[in-house]
Amino acid sequence: MIGLFKRDLALAVRAGGGFGLGLAFFLIVTVLVPFGVGPNTGILSTIAPGILWLGALLACLLSLDRVFQLDWEDGSLDLLATSPLPLENVAAIKALAHWVTTGLPLVVAAPILGVLLNLPGPGYGWLMASLALGTPALSAIGTFGAALTVGLKRGGLLLSLLVLPLYVPTLIFGALVVTRGAAGLDATTPLALLAGITLATIATLPFAAAAALRVNLR
Amino acid sequence: MSFWEYANPRKFMATSAMLLPWVATLAALCLITGLIWGFFFTPDDFRQGSTVKIIYLHVPAALMAINAWLMMLVTSLIWVIRRHHVSALAAKAAAPVGMVFTLIALFTGAVWGQPMWGTWWEWDPRLTSFLILFLFYLGYMALWEAIENPDSAADLTSVLCLVGSVFAIISRYALVFWNQGLHQGATLSLDAEQNISDVFWYPLLVCIAGFVLLFVALVLYRTQTEIRVRRLKALIAQERMA
């Protein structure tokens, strides 16, 4: 398990394109928003929580088709399926590796982009907390979607269509935490619900992802 | 005589061929009676005027949009557990029907909302969750279309349907948290003594019966088509082998 995790991390860092790409995408989306809505700082600071969460979500989505696709193409997914490691663990580790390479950098970068969008002062702590608690759910749900579409030749667009509706609850609670936090209100309730979604997806979706992988490898 | 006999495509085809004309005729009768009764022979509401009559399309369509997904969930489960092909094909057949009912509910709601709420669309939990349900239908159908092997397609869409159902319910309650609603509460609930005035209630019941029968008829018909497509493919494959 640890070996697989290290291998996935090394591949993401060394193969290029995977590791920094999500982060760069996040940056570009955030920079483009003021061009779209105008440089009015008042408007920007009200929509900043939603934009930051949406940007993080799209950045996660962008790297999803890499989760299983490369392993599927070169056959290492078949090796993993025949190895003594249960496929459920493989799915969980893949989700973890995806989170470490995509979600974690987003959590670290988000406050800097928050400054660009003029996020109000009390929001920063909540932003970090909500992204840290919420992005694992994005990775877990996304891994499930990637497992569903791994056998398809052009699965990328279909993957987005399947995964985005599943992201709705996470996005709602995540953005709500930041909006409330930025307004100086207490945001522990949505934060707790967000954590609940994350824990539930981590606990259950690797099983669904493994079931989908088994069908695709048949 | 057990329910599982219908897992045999032959048996299913025979029974559904016998049932289909009856169900279809009944559906047409119910819809014609219910809609004409509802549109022309019920009084206007004292506040909503004649717009209240859109209820005869809106409520049954919304009801069946959710129930179609529920039916897909049950048939997907049957496929996953007992691997009856008819069940998987019935789920496939129900999806477009459910999607159209969702669209009807959204459209009639918009038409009603324009004069009543002063807006075509409002980010209300009920409206938004129907929009999300529509997206779920789209994704489900797209996945069916994308996979070539029919058994893998049935398996993967079943898994998607199961996971999607859970997320649809979570989204529904997350949306309540997200925005307070403008939409009125449930029109129909089983525990209420009187849901709406009897003048509107009876034609509505007839319309609901009509929509249920319409759904059953369409799903039976579409499932028959799917089975025939499957048989045709098998025949073509046989020809090629011979």
TrEMBL record, chain A:
The chain crosses the membrane at residues 12-37, 43-64, 96-117, 123-150, 157-179, 191-213. It is found in: Cell inner membrane. It is a multi-pass membrane protein. One of its GO terms (biological process) is cytochrome complex assembly. GO terms for cellular component: plasma membrane. Required for the export of heme to the periplasm for the biogenesis of c-type cytochromes. PANTHER family: CYTOCHROME C BIOGENESIS B-RELATED, HEME EXPORTER PROTEIN B. This is Heme exporter protein B. It comes from Rhodophyticola porphyridii.
UniProtKB/TrEMBL annotation, chain B:
It comes from the Bacteria. Pfam families: Cytochrom_C_asm. Residues 4-183 form the Cytochrome c assembly protein domain. It is found in: Cell inner membrane; Membrane. The keyword Endoplasmic reticulum does not apply. One of its GO terms (biological process) is cytochrome complex assembly. One of its GO terms (molecular function) is heme transmembrane transporter activity. Belongs to the CcmC/CycZ/HelC family. Required for the export of heme to the periplasm for the biogenesis of c-type cytochromes. This is Heme exporter protein C. It comes from Rhodophyticola porphyridii.
